[in-house]
Amino acid sequence: MGHLGPGGRDIDDQGRETNTSRGKRPARLGLEGTIPHNVVMTTDAPEGIIEPTPPTRPDSQRVLRQKWRTSLDAGWTVIPSALIRGLPLLHIGAGELAVLISLIDYWWAPNDPPWPSKKALAERLNVSQKTIQRQLAVLKQEGLIVSEARHRAGGGQTSNRYDLTPLVAKLEGIAAALKKADAEAAKVKRAATRPGLRAKMSAGGAA
What we know:
With 207 residues, this protein is mainly alpha-helical. 44% of the residues lie in helices and 9% in strands. It contains eight helices and four strands, in the order E-E-H-H-H-H-H-H-E-E-H-H. The protein has helices at 61-68, 81-85, 87-90, 94-106, 118-125, 129-141, 165-193, 195-206, and strands at residues 2-4, 10-12, 146-151, 157-163. The strands form two sheets. Strands 1-2 form a two-stranded antiparallel sheet. A two-stranded antiparallel ribbon has the order 3-4. A hairpin with a 5-residue loop joins strand 3 and strand 4. Helix 5 crosses helix 6. The radius of gyration is 21 Å and the shape is elongated. The termini are far apart.
């Protein structure tokens, strides 16, 4: 007999996490604190990003509740805007994106990569396991995830572990490019409304 404990994990009567929950359920994070926005790491930015970054929004617990109301009672997962807005640079389609979001939802701790089974992913996304296998292959081919084999104590193989740090590194580059585009757009806007600054910018370009 168990119950739902912190983080959405199944907990037995001794307070231990059961095997049925680990790697089988989505992340269940509490609403303590705020969701960090526009946290950008310094890295080489990929070319092709021209859309400026929208203004930072204060997505605190109160604002999240206003937007999503009781739907947050089932938990929530942070999805970087760079993943959605930079999708063309990742060279993946909607199916691969859905798999990525599901893997992110299973990712509970920074140093504990998710390891849902292909069956669990297929059931969640309402597709076949073969489709999941193909989509995972694309994600690996594009260098977004690394698949690591896991084995039971008896030696048999179980579900793979999926390292998402390659995805994080690419999103850092995309976020940096978005922030740079935002700064350049703001500079052009200021120049358009301030003739002196526009002349100074033109002189600097001529130099």
